[in-house]
Amino acid sequence: MSALDNHQRHSQHGLALRTHHVLAGLIFLRLVNVLCTGRTFFQPDEYFQALEPAWNLAFGPHSGAWLTWEWKYQLRSSLHPALFAAAYAAVDRIAALLPCLPSFRASLRVAIPRLVQAGVVVTGDLFTWKLAERVYGQGSRSAWSTLTVAVLNPWQWYCSARTFSNSFEATLTIAALSYWPWELLGDATQTRAGYAMRTGRLSSLRISLSFAALAVLLRPTNIFIWATVVLTAVARPTLQGRSPMSFRVILVLLREATLCGTAALLLSALSDRLYFGHWTFPPYHFLQFNLSQDLAVFYGEMDWHYYLSQGVTQLTMTFLPFALVGLYKSTVKCSPDVTAMQSNTLKTLSFVTIVTIIVLSLVSHKEVRFILPLLPVLHILAAPSFANFFSATPGRQPSQAKTALLAGLILVNLVIAAYLCLFHAAAPIAVMHFLRHEYERIHPDRLSFWPTQPILNHYHTLSTSQPPAGSFADAEVADNELFALFLVPCHAGPWRSHLVYPSLRARALTCEPPLHTAPQSAERAAYKDETTRFYQGFGEHEDWGVGFLADEIWPVVADEGVSSNGSRVSGEIPRYIVGFESIEPMLKSFFDGSARGELSSVKLRKVWRGWNGLFSDDERKGDWLAVWNTGVFA
Questions:
Q1: Which stretches are transmembrane (predicted)?
Q2: Second label for 613, Cα 20 to 30 Å away, from 41, 249, 292, 588?
Q3: Considering only CA atoms, which of 317, 308, 321, 319 is closest in space to residue 416?
Q4: Which runs of consecutive H residues, i.e. helices, occur in 362-449?
């Protein structure tokens, strides 16, 4: 064997060993990450667009999942929930074979989505590093800096480790970019035309296009990323060198895109057919509802500059200066020290970032997580300036000032990540654990009642958009008490993925959009959902919610013969009421001041209190969340 062969063999072995070490480190970090983020609440879609439909898929239509209106009208792809449903079913089948207590099985069901998400975010981190090595070179300082930035970024810890479809989209996108044939952006004088289409490169291209197609089906707005990549490769605006693209290469790209796109479409269609019970195409319904019904505005409008002034800042946090420098240098300034392919690749990645932000800025409803797929790209762009700033001059040790600054940066990132993942908005998760454990203590005989529906069933009950107060037809369970009433803003916490037991009956305020009204109509302008009606007058007077409770939660209706005054309460009085402490004066005013005999037995007693963080973006969500026992059950 030649010396060259030995060198290549040792190089490949070293690369594999390094990859294994990086992978092991990432798995450990992200397991810690998901266990921490599992303590806090960020946004409802983490649960209601992923875990609730997954729960319904895994355990059947009588399992108590809360399916929102988007699932009724097939606006969401079932591919993402199917990932968690498969994990739910697999773990539950294994646990059923073991002598596990029901409470232990319940804890497993709460934990398993986090473990799946750990795998998702580890995969995203690994492909971010792999793409950085393709761009900057294996073992390069900038490649390692990319991995460092990704690991230290507090927003990556806070958001990417959650079960958002955007997190899955981000992983699919960076994996697709990692496999993409960037040689197509090189200089034809340095790379032979058609080089990227050889057999080995063709399989890489197919993997890239398959991941890209799945990302687009999952989130249709992902198309802007790939339109930018492809158009830049073909048109080469401001790129260096002569294009290696030929007519044959373009035909191969079209052929493979058609084949991979069709395969992904068939997979998605089959999944949706099994989930919804009929053939449907969620991306079409998503666009139809948002364009014809203009429903996005119902969930809030932001200024056109939201992503520029807030979005990118939140994504990159302390690494914002390095990301901005990287964007500038990649887009405007051409370094003579890099190859044409490296320069053109970085420029394309910067174009992807700029174009996606511009296009999404035209949409009225904006959220930071909508641009989450850009975060790995920003990490790659930020890496060279980060490495150069903290690196020592050749032949010298790093200055004490830079060493102290780097230590301070790491400390600040750790503090931010620790607060966001462990303490910020932790009460909505903690209260679910409290209620579940209370149910286990009070009703130990009802913990083993589980549905036996097959995982791939036709679910004709997907039309539900109300939180199920009870699910089973079994009389013993159906007659059970209403265990908890949530008087909090709609979707202010998880649901069945944390309550777990289908027999644990609960009720919460809803916030369905006005699907029955025409856009810009007077009826739509006057529409108020349950949450809005309950909080109407909040902070203006002490009795702001009394009317809602009297009219919609515990309404008095005529019913001769039931009582001496010919009336009764048609609503159920729960064992526990859950709400932020700001509602306590109103509750006491309602129950203590009520002249209704049916409510005279309610004697509120606070039994649990949880801190909800230093600040909130909603004035209705105070510093503390509380649980009151109504005293009507023994």
A1: 211-235, 247-270, 304-328, 348-364, 370-392, 404-427
A2: 588
A3: 317
A4: 375-390, 400-422, 427-442
List of E strands, 183-312: none
* Burial group, residue 508, by CB count within 10 angstroms (0-12, 13-18, 19+): buried
Q: What's phi and psi for 588, nearest 5 deg?
A: -65, -35
Cβ atoms 364, 302 nearer than 8 A? yes
Q: What phi, psi does 347 have (nearest 5°)?
A: -65, -40
| Tokens 């004709």 -> residue | 460
Q: Residue 380: name the closest of 170, 116, 163 by CA.
A: 170
CA quadruple 127, 131, 134, 139: dihedral positive or negative? negative
pLDDT in tens, 75-127: 899 999 999 999 999 999 998 888 888 999 999 999 999 999 999 999 999 99
Tokens of 76: 């969401």
Percentage of the chain modeled with pLDDT above 90: 62
Please give the Cα distance from 217 to 85 (Å, whole number): 19
Task: Tell me what pLDDT residue 399 has.
Answer: 79
Look at residue 471 and tell me whether its pLDDT is greater than 50. no
In angstroms, the CA 170 to CA 249 distance is 28
For residue 253, the number of C-alpha atoms closer than 13 Å in the C-beta half-sphere is 18
Helices 400-422 and 375-390: angle between axes, nearest 10 degrees: 150
- Please name the amino acid found at residue 353: T
Task: Quote the DSSP letter at residue 246.
Answer: -
HSE-up (13 A, CA, CB side) for residue 574 = 23
Question: How far apart (Å, rounded) are the C-alpha atoms in residues 243 and 54?
Answer: 46
User: Could you give the CA distance from residue 195 to residue 239 in angstroms, rounded to a whole number?
Assistant: 19
Radius of gyration of the chain (CA): 27
Q: Is the four-CA dihedral 198, 204, 205, 206 of positive or negative sign?
A: positive
* Both tokens assigned to 370: 């909508």
Residue in 245, 113, 145, 124 with CA at minimum distance from that of residue 185? 245
Which residues have C-beta within 8 Å of that of residue 210, sequence separation ≥ 6? 176, 260, 263, 264
> CA of 363: how far to CAs of 198, 310, 352, 356, in Å?
41, 15, 17, 11
DSSP strand pairing (484-486 vs 506-508): parallel
Which pLDDT does position 333 carry in this prediction? 72
CA distance 208 to 175: 7
Pairwise CA distance, residues 511 & 69, whole Å: 10
Return the bridge partners of 609, or none. Answer: 626
Closest by Cα among 154, 126, 164, 150 to 42: 164
Query: Within 13 Å and on the Cβ side, how many CA atoms surround 487?
Result: 26
Rounded to the nearest 5 degrees, what angle is found at the Cα of 12, between the Cα atoms of 9 and 13? 85
Place of tokens 């802007």: 224
Alpha carbons within 13 angstroms on the beta-carbon side of residue 556 total: 13
For residue 178, how many C-alpha atoms fall within 13 Å in the half-sphere facing its CB? Answer: 20
Q: Is 30 exposed, middle or buried (0-12, 13-18, 19+ CB in 10 A)?
A: buried
Query: What secondary structure does DSSP assign to 310-341, as a single string?
Result: IIHHHHHGGGHHHHHHHHHHHHTPPPTTS-HH
SS3 content of the chain, % helix, strand, coil (to 5): 60, 5, 35
CA gap 516, 523 in Å, rounded: 9
Q: What does the domain layout of the chain look like in residue ranges?
A: 73-417, 427-629
Question: Quick one: tokens of 2?
Answer: 């030649």
pLDDT at 405: 93
